[in-house]
Amino acid sequence: MIKFITTIAIIFGILILPWADQAQCSVAVSCDLLKQGLMFYKANRGGRLPDTDVPWRNNSVLSDAYPAGAKDANGDGNLSGGYFDAGDGIKVTLPMSYSMTMLAWGFLESEAKIEACGLTNLYLETIKWGTDWLMAAHVSDNELVCLVGDPNADHSWWGPPELMTMERPVYVLSASKPGTEVAMEVAAALAATAVIYKDRDAAYAESCLSHAKSVFTFGENNLGVYSESYPIINAFYKSWSGYKDEMVWAAAWMYKATGDESYLTKAKEWYTTNGIATMGAGTTMSWDNKAPGTMVLMSKITNDTSYAKDAATFLDGWMPGGSVPYTPGGLAWLMEWGPNRYAINTAFIAQALGDAKYITGYTDKQLAYVLGDNPNQQSFVVGVGNKHPINPHHRAAHGSTTNNIKDPVNNIHMLYGALVGGPGKDDAYTDDRENYITNEVATDYNACFVAVLAYYAAGNETTTPTSSETVCSSEEAATVPPVTPASINKIIAGTFDPTGSSSEVPITNSSSSSSSFEGSSSSIDNSSSLNGSSSSIDSSSSLNGSSSDILPPSLSSSSSLEPSANNSSSYSSNDDNPQPSVVGDDSSDALSFTILVSWAIIAAFMAVSIFVLLS
Q: Which of 158, 238, 410, 442 has a beta carbon 3.0–4.6 Å from 569's, enabling a disulfide?
């Protein structure tokens, strides 16, 4: 009996040891995937485009301006640039500035890896396109544009921004119409950008910092939530957490950018009085709530472990067994609307904190899930893997010229690198353009996603590979065929062969507009008033609903809160760029099975030999 038990133990050891290091999976991200995440932003640019990197996008909204008729250096409206919020045509300062802050933070965390990928210029261009607009939106010390375009009118029409002709009002914050949360987030974005540019372009860094100081003072001296100043925002980007979190967040970034102790004093005081330590419970980092990020940032700029402990307490709630539920397949699922976004936002917070417990126990797994390492082998990033979204909720990528969300059936253009909303709580997902809950994409969705990709990017690469893998231990992941412009043409035609056995013939997208269309721009100045009636919404008149993101990112108050109208959001990237792929395909499964069988045969042979020797 002893000999038998010994033999079994040896067999068990032989079988298990080769797989022991695979109990924890890690994610290897190609430089190309990081590039696609950034190209997503290029596809959502407004204004006069300086390049044709996204060939199916063209100049748009060239008349966006405040005051009316104000021009930029190109002779276009001074607010013509910036980023469209999602798959629509409005520009919303709060989520846009948040996105730039998080992109900047991601750059500061992973600068060396971004440089090794050869993507520094693209990354900084992405941030600068946003921060240039933020400085233009800060038209004077006490005036800050918070919204361009009427969301209700915008969402009642379906087509690319190049074809928009509706009026585009401009909503301006002032002393009489405050919006502290917006002002403080703009200050944070510009301060974070100033840190990046300090040793690269001192003049630009100084411009960012000058605006940051001014808009910070404006926000501090004129307290108030912007949704009360402009009720029309309530159904779209109301800040459910208020402005107290942004005050601490901005003060911390201002201290990091300036070294001025007065900002740190305010950050420490407001951190306590504004209840930041508990504000993250039941929610996470988002365009609305900055508490989780503030905890980590404060721990970094002060080296005070109490802030890190607050962050750890917050992250414990997101670990398996914590307060945030998980899907059966392993996605931390905060809520139905855009769960991928919240899971990845938290993944960046964990990565930025730097505690291996949370990086290996949470960030690794959440990124792997959205890249396709899940029971359905479903990637949630456009262009990644064999099974990925092709119909994100995005007007420009869809390419309709008939004001019809159903025509054509499939998106004409691929929105490469865009992270879609995500699955239901049972891991089920439908690639449906009309379902903004699961298939929305937005600037804020991709911000932390890009930051996390940068952290995992494979360094020292002189070229951008065409694969991105979920890797367990050192085993190489199989590469699946990338989706190309020809592939999407075949998908539309119903003839696409995901195995890659069919030949791909390059095609030219004929739907790209060669001419520029701009809608007229009207401004709502400080003296104008928007009463409650202006925010009323007739959702029945909207092709895709009327909300960009109306659910508060918290389940503590009411998990039954449902949007009365939906969101238009999505993004696009360059059809000509090579696309990454993710493990989880049949070839990878076959490889794993082959290795397992091989080890079993070897183990059996050795076991027999050992048994004979022991006898």
A: 442
